[in-house]
Design a protein that fits this description.
Bound molecules: NADP nicotinamide-adenine-dinucleotide phosphate
Number of strands: 15
Helix content: 25-40%
Order of helices and strands: EHEHHEHEHEHEHEEHEEEEHHEHHEEH
Number of domains: 2
Strand order of the largest sheet: 8-11-7-12-15-14-13
Structural class: alpha/beta
CATH superfamily of the largest domain: Dihydrodipicolinate Reductase, domain 2
Largest sheet: 7 strands, mixed
CATH class of the largest domain: Alpha Beta
Radius of gyration: 20 Å
Low-confidence stretches: none
Distance between the termini: 15 Å
Amino acid sequence: MKQYKVGIIGGTGMVGQRLITLMENHPWFQLTVIAASGRSAGKPYEEALAGRWALDIPMPEEAKKIVVMDAEKDAEKIAELVDFCFCAVNMNKDEIKALEEKYVKLECPIISNNSANRWTDDVPMVIPEINAEHIAVIDAQRKRWGTKRGFIAVKSNCSIQSYVPAMHPLMKYGIDRALVCTYQAISGAGKTFQRWPEMVDNCIPYIGGEEEKSEQEPLKVWGHLEDGKIVKAAGPSLTAQCFRVACQDGHMAAVFLKFKDGCKPSLEQIKADWAAFRGPAQELELPSAPKQFLHYFEEPDRPQTRLDRNLEGGMAISIGRLRPDTQYDYKFVSLSHNTLRGAAGGGVELAELLCKKGYITAK
Ligand SMILES: NC(=O)c1ccc[n+]([C@@H]2O[C@H](COP(=O)([O-])OP(=O)(O)OC[C@H]3O[C@@H](n4cnc5c(N)ncnc54)[C@H](OP(=O)(O)O)[C@@H]3O)[C@@H](O)[C@H]2O)c1
C-alpha cells in the first residue's frame, strides 16, 4: 500500500528524473509534489521538461500532469502536502544548506542527494547495506533543531559506491590502505552526450572536488556514533584519482588493496565474503534492496559498464578481475550505477530504511 506522500525537490534534474521513475511502481511511496526552481514552477511537469527528459525510459504518466512547485517560495505548502521530501538540486552549498534547513524546520524530513550536509556530524550519511545503525544520530539532530519530525539524512557521493561496498566485507581483516581510480559516467554531472558534446570520444582527468570526497566520505560511512555525533573512522588510508569518461551511466573503479601485516585473506576467502554478504537492507527486505548486493564475475572482461550497470534494478554492485598485485596485496574492478545505486536508488532505499525504523511516519 502506498502510505507515504512524497515530494521531490529538484524533480526536473538528472537525479530528480530518476527519482520520479522510481516512485511509479513503488509499493510504499506516492509521488505527490514535484518542486524545482522558479524557471520550471507553475508548469505541468511534462511541459517544464520539454526537451529535457534525459532517461532512456518513458516519463511516468503520473508525473506528467503534476504542476511543478517552487521549492523555495512554496516550501510551507509543500511541507504540508507530503510526509517527506527527496532533495537533489544544483545550487551552491550555502543555498542548499539554507533550503534543506527550511524544510527541516517545517517538520519535513529531507533525504538529500546533495553534498552540502554530508559533513555535518549529526547528519547520517548512509548506505543501508553498510551503516544503517548511523540513523540513530537523528535523535540528537532533532534535539539540535528542536523538531519532532524534521531531520536531514544524506546518501554518500556516487563515486564511493563503486568501491566501498566491495571493500566493506573485507574490513574485518584489517585493510591498511587502498588506491582507487574511478571512471565516471557523464550523467554524474547531470549531463547527456547531447548536452555535453565535448565528452564524445573523450576522457577528462578532473572532476572538481571528487577526489577529496572519494578519499574522505568512506571514513564517515565506516565511522561510529558517539555522544550524538558520527565520528569518522581512522582508516584505511585512501588515495583516489577520478576521471570523467564517455559513458552515459555507470561508475567503474579500479581498486588496489593492502592489508595490515599478517591480515591478508586468501583470494577464495575474499570471493566467499562477497558472495555471502548481506546487510541490514537485505535483512529488513527493503523494497529497493538487491537480493544479492555484491556479484562477482569470473569472466576476465567483466563487469562492463553497458552490460552490468543495470544489475538488480541498478542497485547491485558488480565486481571482477580479483587478482594478486605486485605492490599491493590484491587488485580488482567494481561497478555501480551512479544515478540508481549512487543517487536516486540509494536515496529511495535510505528512505525505506527510515520508514521501516520509524524515523519517517505518515501524517
Ligand atoms: N547525477 C548524479 O549522478 C548525482 C549523483 C549523486 C549526487 N548528485 C547530486 O544531486 C544533486 C542534483 O544533481 P543533478 O545531476 O540531478 O543536477 P541537475 O540535473 O543539474 O538538476 C538540478 C535540479 O536543481 C534544480 N534547481 C536549480 N536551482 C534551483 C533553485 N534555486 N531552487 C530550486 N531548485 C533549483 C533544477 O531545477 P530547474 O530545472 O527548474 O532549473 C533541477 O531540478 C547535486 O547536488 C549533485 O551533486 C548527483
